[in-house]
Structure formats: structure tokens, C-alpha cells
């Protein structure tokens, strides 16, 4: 009897042990399922264990937080949000003036004959709305402002007339004219959501890193031949529309292109513009040229003949001249050729060293 009792006791303990093992297994399964429900199932090929999956989940969460906090590139307000009435008409007229400037103000313009036949949007793409396409997003938020180029505080009217005189190699508009008021209304509306005094991501033209060598017009010609002539023609004269009044693709040099006082005549401005927008179809996210190619083709384009702009009153403070302003005099010892083509990286480094030396002298 005693032996039987011991045997039954052993069997009972074995059953209890099996039940405990089963409970522990089920508990483990529940924990694993809960983990995957919370953190997701690792993708095939992942070598992550539960421990490093937790670490990976933490890193993923941090990356997602960084993405959420990264500022979005500026986009133009929707035209469905335009105001009503006369202001709406004025804004739309302003947009049309930017997009089709030559129709109104070109050599055969319906309003006046004060420009070279290019449109404002040849330099300010998509009527001034394309990110990194020299857009107008920050104009209303930053003007009036002091500009070193003129040494004065300028308003939007002055800024627009600068473009007419330089980029369109033309004459100014009266600030009281319907056309100037319409252009200002359109530019102001584009920046309606931009906080005063700020520039949103994607505004204007992106600055390209300086190269340690000079930009090479010869190399740039090769880029131009392979990437640019399909639109701008081998002679750089662009392509007119069927109306012979406006350009489908603008001239890059010659009598009907921007003059030597235009912003794009500075190599850094043209290189940044080209990098993110040219050739056709390129964007900041999907460029088609390397930085070096953009610098070189800009050097080639700006080496060709174009009208001379009136720069006699530009940069009254010599020390404030940009390093790539191609006309002297200068506050440094670099030549005009160096200021036009570089090597801007080395020049900037030398100027910074000189500034540091001056600081040390002042302290001593």
C-alpha cells in the first residue's frame, strides 16, 4: 500500500510539473505576442534579437521624431485660397505679369516696351513658386531691408525694379502703376504664411559649397553641349514661342539675356540655381549635375557676351562685397579673375585666417 501511495504521489507531482511547464510556456508566448503587437515584427533577414530589437525600436522612434521636427520645404499657397473681388484680380494680374512679362512689357509688349523679351519666371521659376528655384517666398517677410549692394534700405518696389533693370536689361516701372501694384500684391500673397523676418526652407537659391579649384569654363562648355543645347540652342540664344514675342527657353547670353549687373552674373548664384533646376526636370531632391558641373557650366555661361549693367553705385562698402563679385575694386588682394571664377574655397579660407589675425592684433 505504501509503495502504491508513493507511486501515485510521484505521478501527481509529474502532472503538476507538466502543468507548470505548460503555464510557463503559454506565459512566454503571451509575452512575445504582446511584444510584437507593441513593437512590430522584425523584417526577414534582420539579425535583431529581442534585446537589440528594443534598441532598434528606440532608434526608430528617435528618427521618426527628428523627421517630424524637420521643417518642411516652403510651398506656395493654393490659388483656391485667393481673396475675392478686386484684390483677387490684382493678384492674378501680378502672377500673369511674372509668368508672361514679355507679353506686357517686352519689345512687343501690350502695356510698355521696357524689357529684353525674357519673363520674370525665367529666373524665378514657376512664377516665383518653385522651391530652390529663386522663389518669392521670403520677399514680403524680409522687405523693407538694408542691402549691402546699394548701401540703402530697399522696399519691394526697388527690388522689382532692380530685376527689370538688371535681369531683364530694361527700365523701371512707376511704383504707382497698375503693373507694379499687381506684382507687389502677388508677391505679398505668396508670402502670406511666412513669419515676418524669416526665410522658410527652400526659399531663394541654395548655396553650393565652394570648390578648392577655380570654376572651369572649358569643362563647363562640355556640360553645356551635353546637357543644355536641347533647350537653349548651341548658340545660347534660347527658343522663341510661335508668337515670336516670348521665349519658351530663354537666351543664356547675348543682347536679350541678363546683363552684368544681374544677380545671376555672380557665379555662386548661377551655380546654385543650375544645380537644383537644370537641365529640364532636375529638382533639389533629384539633381542631374554634380556640384562641380554646376560651377563649371555657370562659369561657361557667364563667360559669354552679354549687355553691361550699371554697377557704378553697387557695393559702396568694399569689405561687404561678396567673394564672387566679378568687378573691382576690392578690399582684398585677389584679382578680378579670381573673384569671378575662384578658387573660392581657398580664397574664403585665406580671408577667414586674415580676420582671425586681425582679432588677435586687436586683443593684443
What is the element layout, followed by pairings?
Layout: H1 2-39, H2 50-69, H3 85-99, H4 101-105, H5 125-128, H6 139-142, E1 145-147, E2 152-154, H7 156-166, H8 178-190, H9 217-227, H10 229-232, E3 239-240, E4 247-249, H11 267-277, H12 291-301, H13 336-341, H14 344-363
Antiparallel strand pairs: 1-2, 3-4
Helix pairs in contact: 3-8, 9-12, 11-12
What is the CATH fold-level name of the domain at 217-352?
Cytochrome Bc1 Complex, Chain D, domain 2
Looking at the overall shape, the CATH architecture of the domain at 217-352 is Orthogonal Bundle
Number of strands: 4
Largest sheet: 2 strands, antiparallel
Specify the number of helices. Answer: 14
**Judging from the principal axes of the Cα atoms, what is the shape?**
extended
Q: How is the largest sheet built, in terms of strand order?
A: 1-2
Strand content: under 5%
Alpha carbon gap, first and last residue: 107 Å
The topology string of helices and strands comes to HHHHHHEEHHHHEEHHHH
Overall mean confidence score, pLDDT: 88
Radius of gyration: 32 Å
CATH class category label of the domain at 217-352? Mainly Alpha
Any idea what the CATH superfamily of the domain at 217-352 is called? Cytochrome c-like domain
Unreliable stretches (pLDDT < 50, length at least 5) are 41-63
How much helix is in the residues? 40-55%
Amino acid at each position: 500500500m505504501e509503495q502504491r501511495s508513493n507511486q501515485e504521489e510521484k505521478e501527481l507531482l509529474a502532472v503538476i510539473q507538466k502543468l507548470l511547464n505548460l503555464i510557463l510556456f503559454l506565459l512566454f508566448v503571451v509575452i512575445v505576442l504582446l511584444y510584437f503587437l507593441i513593437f512590430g515584427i522584425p523584417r526577414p533577414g534582420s539579425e535583431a534579437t529581442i534585446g537589440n530589437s528594443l534598441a532598434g525600436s528606440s532608434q526608430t522612434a528617435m528618427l521618426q521624431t527628428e523627421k517630424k521636427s524637420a521643417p518642411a520645404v516652403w510651398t506656395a499657397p493654393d490659388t483656391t485660397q485667393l481673396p475675392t473681388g478686386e484684390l483677387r484680380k490684382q493678384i492674378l494680374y501680378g502672377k500673369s505679369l511674372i509668368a508672361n512679362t514679355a507679353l506686357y512689357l517686352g519689345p512687343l509688349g501690350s502695356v510698355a516696351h521696357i524689357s529684353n523679351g525674357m519673363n520674370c519666371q525665367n529666373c524665378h521659376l514657376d512664377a516665383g513658386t518653385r522651391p530652390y528655384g529663386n522663389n518669392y517666398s521670403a520677399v514680403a517677410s524680409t522687405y523693407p531691408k538694408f542691402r549691402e549692394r546699394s548701401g540703402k534700405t530697399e522696399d519691394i518696389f526697388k527690388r522689382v525694379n532692380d530685376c527689370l533693370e538688371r535681369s531683364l536689361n530694361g527700365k523701371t516701372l512707376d511704383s504707382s502703376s497698375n503693373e507694379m501694384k499687381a506684382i507687389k500684391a502677388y508677391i505679398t500673397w505668396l508670402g502670406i504664411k511666412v513669419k515676418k523676418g524669416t526665410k522658410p526652407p527652400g526659399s531663394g537659391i541654395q548655396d553650393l559649397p565652394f570648390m578648392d579649384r577655380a570654376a572651369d569654363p572649358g569643362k563647363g562648355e562640355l556640360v553645356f553641349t551635353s546637357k543644355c543645347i536641347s533647350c537653349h540652342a548651341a548658340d545660347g540664344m534660347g527658343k522663341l514661342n510661335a508668337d515670336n514675342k516670348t521665349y519658351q527657353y530663354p537666351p543664356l547670353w547675348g543682347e536679350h539675356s541678363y546683363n552684368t549687373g544681374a544677380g545671376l552674373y555672380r557665379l555662386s548664384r548661377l551655380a546654385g540655381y543650375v544645380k537644383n533646376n537644370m537641365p529640364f526636370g532636375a529638382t533639389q531632391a533629384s539633381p542631374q549635375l554634380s556640384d562641380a558641373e554646376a560651377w563649371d557650366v555657370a562659369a561657361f555661361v557667364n563667360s559669354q557676351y552679354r549687355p553691361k549693367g550699371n554697377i557704378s553705385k553697387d557695393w559702396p562698402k568694399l569689405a561687404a562685397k561678396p567673394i564672387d563679385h566679378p568687378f573691382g575694386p576690392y578690399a582684398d588682394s585677389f584679382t578680378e579673375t579670381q573673384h569671378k571664377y575662384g578658387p573660392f574655397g581657398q580664397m574664403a579660407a585665406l580671408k577667414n585666417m586674415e580676420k582671425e589675425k586681425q582679432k588677435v592684433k586687436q586683443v593684443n
